[in-house]
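Notes continue from the previous slide.

Worked example: a multi-chain complex. Inputs as given:
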Amino acid sequence: MRAPWRNVKDADVQRAVGNLLRGGVLLAAAVVLAGGVVFLWRHGTALPDYRTFRGEPLDLRELGGIVRDAFSGTGRGLIQLGLLLLVATPVARVAFTAVAFAFERDRTYVLVALLVLSLLLKSLAG
Amino acid sequence: MNTLVFGGTIAAASFCAGFLGSLTGLGGGFIITPVLTLVFGADIRYAIGASLISIIATSSGAAAAYVKEGFTNLRVGMLLEIATVVGALVGASLTTVLPTRALIVLFGTVLLVSAYLTTRPHAEHLTAALPPDPLASRLRLDSEYPTAGGPVRYRVRHVPGGFALMWVAGVLSGLLGIGSGAVKVLAMDQVMYLPFKVSTATSNFMIGVTAAASAGIYLRHGYVDPGLAMPVMLGVLAGSLVGARLLFGARTDRLRLLFAVALVAVAVEMIYKGVAGGR
């Protein structure tokens, strides 16, 4: 008896990973763009000073603060949330590749993809 | 100059970075960093944060097209990614032990020589006629890629050599904080004999994963500024989508030349950074 996913080919995997990437990137871009409009609306004429490094305020450095700022509608918060979505696309790409290789019954590459994913998550979490 | 003009100029430079980065597999960081620091006088830490965002945007923007069309070799990419990420972790722990400025000049010089090597194409169309490499066959790395005359099969060679070089690329990027796209393309093209377009597309796929690994650190240190990253991300993304449309029809010899010129720019930038210091 053959399961339907028995015939999953590299081409199917490629199409699925490609679509996932496109969706993630477009979503991230839309959020950044929305944040950019709000940001420019409020700061349109004042040129920020990037010559001296002050570092971002704490609420724009970590997940909880960014989400809070984004949902209270600040431009900077929204942009930062979009950037987080962008950073998430390569992570989702690796995770999805692992699932796709599992459908292909390619055990070696499921392990390879999971190893890459765990290394990635480890360094992301610092 | 106000925020609109400032953002617009950065977005235009970012468009070029995304365009070149997606076609060469180098990412766009080598354009973003000098534009922000030298032209706009931004602090290097803001530039590093923005350039990291540009690399991920180039990678994810172009990868969607490349993976779908079948240029990206997912197995080669995943396998080599292990070497790069482990290397990067080792490299990051060596920063206080090794003389980074001397290394960066040395590495820049190596890239300068490599730029010359890449302009001489190897017989990539002949690799399908060679006997299969046992390790590459067992790892199912051999594949095919689209050309105007239909899909062309290719064989992968020298897997251990490519893996070792990719580890070195990871160590260097972790140690020196520089993009490893150059070494990735070189390892796949010159050592593993992948077709050039497959090398650049697979490198493009991988650089996003490598950059995402360090994104957490930079974000927590406050290097990623939304006002700078917004025009960079949108510009790079648009550029990479346009670049990705052109890969299929591009002539390989012209792509090699474009890659070589971009590599010279990367190398000169690195040597400057090592000699001038601090940047």
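Summary box: Chain B is about 75% helix and 0% strand. The beta strands of chain B are 143-145, 152-154.
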